[in-house]
Amino acid sequence: MKNRIITGVTFGALWLLVLLLGSFKFFWFMILVIACMALYEFFTIALPNSTSQRPAFLILALLPIIGVFNGQAGQMQAAFMLALFLSTALVLIIYSDQVNDFTELAKIISGITLISLTAAHLVLLMSAASGRQWLILLTLITTASDTGAYFTGTLLGRHKLCPAISPGKTWEGLAGGLIAAVIVTIIAAPFIFPDSSILKLILVSLLLSIIGVGGDMTESIFKRSHKVKDSGAVLPGHGGILDRVDSILAAAPVLYYAIKLGIVQ
Description:
The protein is mainly alpha-helical. A hairpin with a 3-residue loop joins β1 and β2. α2 runs antiparallel to α6. The protein starts with a helix and ends in a 5-residue tail after the last helix. GO terms for molecular function: phosphatidate cytidylyltransferase activity.
């Protein structure tokens, strides 16, 4: 527990410093580094027998983030399609004599989509109007949701949310996470977005919290299917980078398109 708290506070403080003080290019670079580490963990688990090919898949998977270095959604989309095309071609070449080549391709596309494409939306959020403020609010919501769910589930959890996927998650934990996200939104939103509708922001915080849980559950499915507990061990008390960022990665595209569609302003 002590390691978990220390690591969480340290990681969170560094992340907020990047959001508050870093330039756009520095933020893009940090997202590139974080995504690279998360993808490395993902491919190490998903492709354990493809050590020599893993660097090539890693580079291709990073194309959506590389493509968004100017904050343009169109370039990100083009880079994403290029990543899918080149990855498919590479899989057909490398695994042409194997019967499970489609399985390998599905794993690679999953990594590109679930990690790189979603991480690129963090960069798009930074390039949007009031991008830093939205990223701070997103960070507060997902962190509060994760923390509230963890402690509420530990103390009060009785009813399993989805035991086949994640035995530790409970309905009580889910409720605690949602309540924590709403409380943080009510406290922080007037300072970050004083002119925005607090009701809309509360509804968005609930949506982002639920989507974040979905991202966490998706990673749990991935880890359980490969019989591993954590994606890595780089963060004491938390596991790997992917274990720490799965919720915010899942929520980032939802918030970005909510802003673009004018649902929140």
